[in-house]
Fold this sequence. Notes:
319 residues, Spore Coat Polysaccharide Biosynthesis Protein SpsA, Chain A, 2 domains, ten-stranded mixed sheet, 12 strands, 40% helix
Amino acid sequence: MLHWFNGLKNVIMKKYQVSVVIINYNSSDYTLDCVKSIIKTIDAGLLYNIVIVDNNSKEDDFRNLSNNCGTFGNVQIVKSKINLGFSGGNMFGVQYVNAQYIFFLNNDTVLLNDCISILYRFMIENSSVGICTGQMYNSDMSFHHSFNYFPTLALKFFGSDLLRLFNPRAFPNKKVEYKNPLKVNFVTGAAMFIDYSKFAKVAGFDTNHFLYCEEEDIAMKLKRKGYSAYLVPEAKFIHHMGKSTKRNFLIEKENYISLLYYHRKYSSAIVYFLLKVLYAIKSLKKFYKGYDNVRMAAFIIKGANPKYSLKNKQELRIE
Length: 319
């Protein structure tokens, strides 16, 4: 047991030290494996609970989830009657959180060690940090980077390799597997460990992001309040890439809807325009792969209007 937990319990005002929020959408087998990995690896001395948000899954998937979660302790399932997406689903889950820290965890992840206690301890010891994550691995246990760079105009023009020559701290090499904690721009959305009080100060996730750019946005909001983002490589987990969301033309459109919305929030008008042109050219250069790339370029130039988001193409489930 990590004995430093015991001294903290007497001063904690929240019911739990950590709440894990997981979204399930028609992938309950992955969700169940994720929950099992949490229970298997977590320190018994940590006060925690798990909130699973079912994002309007099919009935058989939800039934599989609810029937098999009955044997787990500290697990609460809450069901939405509409797919709220990533940001909305997590914010729905936050309403059931009563903890110091929140671990937003993709359901297609598996913890390899006591990630939660490791990240919790790091956050306790580093009060200037707002968000952190562990070291991510692919399904075959190959290394995968857990952080990325803010999508600035300079990055799109010059690339990270060149910018690293001038500012290595701002552009650490993503291809390196680090041993010690590393300050980064933003962390992977697959596993975001966040100080709840700091998260609350920035009003949490922007629910205008339906599926993408949530991690960039929340890290930027925290940064503007003076809080940093960190990779903590001691904590390790697997991410089964792409199991929670299948890529297709509509999903790619959703990506650009979120990306251009992010740039409208944080970029000047001229920078926003230049980035829009760059994204359109990038898509148009792939015209030989199919007409969809031409359609995407036109969609980007027109501003990727949020009215075309999948969020707005749903029906409310009536039971």
